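Exam review. A common question shows you a sequence with its structure tokens and asks you to describe the fold in words. Practice with the pair below. Do the first one on your own.
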Amino acid sequence: MGLVEETKKAFASLYPGGELKTIIFDRQVVDLTPQLLEIKNWKPDILLNGGIGTPTYLIIKQAYDVGLHPSVPMLISYDAPSRPEYWKTLGEKGTWASFIVYYHPTMRLTARGEAFRKKYMAEFKEDPVYGALNAYAQVLLLADALNAAKSDNSEQLVKALLANKFEGWNGTISFTRGEGPYWQQWTPPMLVTQYTKPEMAFSEVKIVYPSELKTGDWMAAPKR
């Protein structure tokens, strides 16, 4: 629900006059064909897939089956496609999807982030995802704050966090003032990537957005 409401707000400000159709469904639903056919008849320019877990895959599979995707581009709201089970679950139906990630193997990291990436790959034989990098940085952030405060007293730790800057996995962390949800929050880089062939490795995908970080252009799917 939160994602839907925030998308409505952003859409209205970024695309005045544009139309946004939203559909909310029960998370236990197993057949989204009626909703997807409704969307297909609406003739959208893009399909935003806000499902989490199983619904994400249902939307992709059934959108393919009804002929909605890939003729209509799809943007998946998080990094599920970067996991090996994506291709195991979807096969060729997962091709041409675009998806949001907060980390990509071609990103430039801090020395701390690069050290973690190398150790993670040596241990698990795959690239880390954003969650692993973020959890690692949070633990080290607390260790840095303990050292800066020279105490484990909560008030001293808070003072140390507010007064200092710390090395994260891809940049500097500081607890700055901000409006609304950005109050003392760190916003990770939001990257849009795209699969352009079946079984494509995540390390091979191109960053198609934002322009300052892109490594390739978005590609339209060929007609089925």
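Now try the second one, then compare your answer with the model answer below.
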Amino acid sequence: MSRNNIIKRTLKTAISDIIVVFMFLAIVYLAVNILGEKYIGTVEAKINEFSKTPSINETNNETDVKIQMDSENNKIVEYPEYGKQYATVQIESIDLNLPLYYGDSLDILKKGIGQSTASYFPGEGGSIICMGHNFATLLRRFSDLKKGNIIKITTDYGEFNYKIYDMQIVKETEVDKVPLQHEEEILMIYTCYPFKNVGYTTRRYVVYAKPV
């Protein structure tokens, strides 16, 4: 067999192998997207079980946090401890009811919604910046939200309702999309995007809402 024929056969075999690998990866990708929604929630539940992470129902029992607000000046005079639940977030339109924690560590975000400690509290008149995982048990249903939906935050110093006016997909580096300011009270809650993504992603889905 000539050298040219050997080279051609080798190339043909290599191309065939590449096609097989590509088809295999395509099948895996489709399987993840089709079956992921069904099984990812189960995997997350098992992770939480082995890490002994409290369930959402357990964390909703944390009622020992008391916050005091100076209603005359709209200022918090006594803040909760870092990592403590101080409120609940409810969105009736997507049947969401989650605890809201002061802080945004990985442990906190396993249990519910975390709030940046650099941001303001409901009623203070500035940016309220919150975040959570896009797990099936947490914020995955953010994809079903629409403008005009109401987000209710209930604290021991009052109930605050916010109407959604915008939703945006942003890059994690676009910090100007979740601005920290005190000119206007704006609630911003974000999660990872795409919603069914498996693994790390550089995009965020941000929901913007203003007081009703």
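Model answer, second protein: Residues 3-50 form the longest helix (48 residues). The two ends are 82 Å apart (CA to CA). Full marks require stating both points clearly.
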